[in-house]
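User: quick one, sequence for these tokens?
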């Protein structure tokens, strides 16, 4: 008699389940790129007011949210699709466009949903290594073949926080073959301050086979509600609509997203705190002599010089959780969310102690007969 696993599609067995950032009881969570300020007060009020109506199904087409976003972005409603987070739109792209044996190109290391989607649809992954922590767009262009169907570019990139120069991005899109769909993932768009950043909406004006992905999870702090959207030409949007699940975005999520758009200060507050925190953490890393990747997102990738899993345990005990770099083969790197000033200061103190303990531990392993006296002397 066959087991359940014998009945599944072979490619499903090759999928590595998504590993979310670990949490720790009582610790400040700096592992998932979440907004430390929380949602807009207007969004919280909208959620409370709608709660009594959750017995009713939500608007399946998210018409009001779509219209408001279209007005905000300067596009037509036909250019938009709303998803259960931008993750669901990535899933829609796989369902709509990928066939077994197709190729999916993305940067290495990637956001986890890109290889997941390729495996789920029984496709071949083509991972193009970053260059100095930045997308190698010429290398990705060179990797395109007749079998290539979907390309993911995360800009800013997760986990490095880097962006590609505007001219390079525009040239990449200009030369994009017609048989390839490009998903330009701009989840951290609102945090970017670099003047050489390309407006992602300009890219969809260039080509009908480009879709830009955005989200309410980051700057709007609605990660727990799952609201994202895609912006593309009407034909591409219509294809995605054909595979969209009914009632995919909850009524509470739609109401919170609408209210968030009515609070212009939400973005301003988030960017200000992020920029201040970024500067502070840069100073702390430089004082410790640590290599880090300058970021255009709400997180920083930093090389702490010791095993990231070991560091995670020590930092968690001190009250702070981070993302370990081992999942990207960056074994001595960690990625941490930029928090409030209080959280950043607490983390910096915990990191200094973590590195100090590591130095003591390594020295003691080499000189066990002198380790106790050394501890007293530091």
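Assistant:
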């Amino acid at each position: 008699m066959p087991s359940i696993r014998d009945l599944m599609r072979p490619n499903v067995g090759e999928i590595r389940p998504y590993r979310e950032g670990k949490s720790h009881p009582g610790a400040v969570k700096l592992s998932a790129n979440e907004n430390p300020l929380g949602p807009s007060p207007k969004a919280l009020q909208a959620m409370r007011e709608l709660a009594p109506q959750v017995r009713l199904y939500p608007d399946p087409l998210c018409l009001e949210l779509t219209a408001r976003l279209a007005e905000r972005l300067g596009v037509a409603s036909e250019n938009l699709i709303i998803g259960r987070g931008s993750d669901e739109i990535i899933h829609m792209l796989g369902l709509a466009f990928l066939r077994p044996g197709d190729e999916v190109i993305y940067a290495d290391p990637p956001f986890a949903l890109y290889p997941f989607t390729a495996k789920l649809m029984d496709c071949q992954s083509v991972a193009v290594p970053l260059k100095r922590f930045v997308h190698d767009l010429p290398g990705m262009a060179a990797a395109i073949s007749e079998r290539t169907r979907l390309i993911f570019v995360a800009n800013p990139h997760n986990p490095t926080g880097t962006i590609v120069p505007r001219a390079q991005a525009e040239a990449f899109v200009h030369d994009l073959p017609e048989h390839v769909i490009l998903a330009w993932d701009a989840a951290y768009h609102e945090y970017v301050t670099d003047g050489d950043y390309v407006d992602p909406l300009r890219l969809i004006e260039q080509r009908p086979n480009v879709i830009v992905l955005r989200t309410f999870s980051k700057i709007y702090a609605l990660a727990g509600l799952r609201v994202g959207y895609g912006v593309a030409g009407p034909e591409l949007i219509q294809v995605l609509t054909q595979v969209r699940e009914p009632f995919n975005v909850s009524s509470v999520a739609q109401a919170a997203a609408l209210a968030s758009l009515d609070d212009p200060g939400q973005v301003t507050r988030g960017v200000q705190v992020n920029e201040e925190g970024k500067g502070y953490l840069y100073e702390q890393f430089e004082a410790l002599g640590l290599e880090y990747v300058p970021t255009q997102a709400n997180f920083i990738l930093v090389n702490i010089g010791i095993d990231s899993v070991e560091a995670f345990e020590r930092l968690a005990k001190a009250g702070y959780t981070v993302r370990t770099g081992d999942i990207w083969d960056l074994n001595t790197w960690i990625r941490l969310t930029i928090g409030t000033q209080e959280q950043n200061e607490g983390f910096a103190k915990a990191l200094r102690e973590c590195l100090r303990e590591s130095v003591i531990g390594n020295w003691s392993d080499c000189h066990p007969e002198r380790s106790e006296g050394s501890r007293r002397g530091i």
